[in-house]
Design brief:
Blueprint: E1 13-14, E2 24-25, E3 33-34, E4 37-38, H1 39-43, E5 45-48, H2 49-53, H3 76-94, E6 98-102, H4 103-106, H5 113-134, E7 137-142, H6 161-180, E8 185-188, E9 194-195, H7 203-224, E10 230-232, E11 242-243, H8 248-257, E12 264-269, H9 270-275, H10 280-290, E13 293-297, H11 316-328, E14 337-339, H12 350-377, H13 381-387, H14 394-400, H15 406-414, H16 425-435
Parallel strand pairs: 1-2, 5-6, 5-14, 6-7, 7-8, 8-10, 10-12, 12-13, 13-14
Antiparallel strand pairs: 3-4, 9-11
Helix pairs in contact: 3-5, 5-6, 6-7, 10-11, 11-12
């Protein structure tokens, strides 16, 4: 280890279900085969740089509680280097194969965009060396175009074209560094791409700006040979009243409108799905149905709070349904499970950061094993197939293929007397509980 922040803590190891050590894995055995593939290769865990190393423990009603040593000092670049040392110590202690970052997480902005880009590339030099020695890879990079006051009215959707141009310069640099570090995806989270009131908003103008911005990013991706997808992360609200990337369905409509479906997918977060009024499973299933599934930010919200709490995912039944959907569709391609989650502001000890990741990694592994067993037994797929079995018959297939007119189908309707069949919801909920 390069620092003493996690002094005295050994790397997390799989010790089996009898272990009571909070820094050991009870279910996550990375080399265990699940449906013919290593557990590590299924889950593709990624540690998020921002919540783990840049969030000070603040909330809307109080300031810093975590008091990390790299958060205070006069030499911003030296603090960034210290933060990188601690970050890679954590990645190696956890054994995560990936990490993810925003540009502003890893490098100070300085006094200009030119200086910011230089700082980012200097830290990328450090990352390159650490990634080579540790074997940790980059799941995705992104640009933070929402924290600085220049973005108070949006980045790509800003009414000022100079802000739009600044955003282009920032995202180009972030994309360049992501490619340089072998990132497997590039994420766009439009934290302020939305509006507070329609009284001062030209809705069509802003949508066209956002469409052009993403189109240019796709063009640039191809120009530099970046192979991974661009991922949009849907979020319904907070900080703006209405976000243009509200949920998966909204993003799909936007991508379709601007001809971006071939290159842009979605990065889905549990907390955002709930804020949009959907279940996590709904958003993932819809993304697969529409052909735009990309990756997952794995966390959870608090059902009693109507904002983005970004807690570590611990709900095994919910995760089991998530993994059931992912396994059923062939597993991740370039995506993974990124811990866009933060410890609570009262969890101030360094080991709390490790314990949170270990516990959530175990919950994900347990959900994966439950999903594997459910798929083997056709526990959910069997009843689902039975419910829609009638549509596999030749005549219904002809209807779906467009080979029958409304009049022809209506004539058949005159000859039938269908009776309702039970949806068996409670039975299926009981089935799920047997596996988790």
């Amino acid at each position: 280890m390069k620092t003493d922040f996690f002094s005295g803590i050994e790397p997390a190891q799989y010790k089996g279900t009898d272990s009571t050590d909070p820094l050991s894995f009870r279910y996550y055995d990375k080399d265990r085969k699940v449906m013919g593939r290593r557990m590590e290769d299924h889950l593709r865990f990624s540690a998020a740089y921002w919540h783990s190393f840049t969030w000070p423990g603040s909330d809307p009603f109080g300031g810093e509680t975590l008091n990390r040593p790299w958060m205070h000092g006069d030499d911003a670049m030296e603090l960034a280097r210290q933060k990188a040392d601690v970050a890679f110590d954590m990645f190696e202690l956890l054994g995560v194969p990936y990490f993810a970052f925003h540009d502003i997480d890893v490098a100070p902005e300085g006094g200009s965009l030119r200086e910011f880009n230089a700082n980012l590339n200097a830290i990328a030099d450090i990352f390159e060396s650490k990634m080579q020695s540790s074997g940790v890879k980059l799941l995705w990079g992104t640009a933070n175009m929402f924290s600085h006051r220049r973005f108070m009215s949006g980045a790509a959707t800003n009414p000022d074209p100079d802000v739009f141009a600044y955003a282009c310069g920032q995202v180009k640099a972030a994309m360049d560094v992501t490619k340089r570090l072998g990132g497997e995806n590039y994420v766009c989270w439009g934290g302020r791409e939305g509006y507070e009131t329609l009284l001062n908003t030209n809705l069509k103008q802003e949508l066209d700006q956002l469409g052009r911005f993403l189109s240019m990013l796709v063009e640039y991706k191809h120009k530099i040979g970046f192979d991974g997808p661009i991922l949009i992360e849907p979020k319904p609200k907070e900080p703006t009243k209405h976000q243009y990337d509200y949920d998966v369905a909204t993003v799909y409509g936007f991508l379709s409108r601007y001809g971006l479906l071939d290159d842009v997918k979605v990065n889905i977060e549990q907390n955002h799905a709930i804020l949009a009024g959907h279940s996590f499973d709904h958003e993932v299933r819809l993304a697969y149905a529409l052909g735009i599934f990309g990756s997952i930010d794995i966390n959870r919200g608090d059902d009693l709070l109507g904002w983005d709490t970004d807690q570590f995912a611990m709900n095994v039944p919910e995760i089991a349904l998530l993994m059931h959907e992912i396994l059923k569709n062939g597993g991740f391609q370039t995506g993974g499970l990124n811990f866009d989650a933060k410890i609570r502001r009262q969890s101030i000890d360094p080991q709390d950061l490790l314990i949170a990741h270990v516990a959530s990694m175990d919950a994900c592994a347990r959900g994966l094993l439950a999903a594997e067993k459910m798929l083997e037994d056709k526990a959910l797929e069997g009843p689902l197939a039975d419910r829609y079995a009638g549509w596999s018959e030749p005549e219904p297939q002809a209807i779906l293929a467009g080979e029958r007119s409304l009049e022809e189908v209506a004539m058949k309707g005159l000859e039938t007397s269908p009776q309702p069949r039970s949806g068996r919801q409670e039975y299926l909920e009981g089935v799920l509980n047997r596996y988790v």
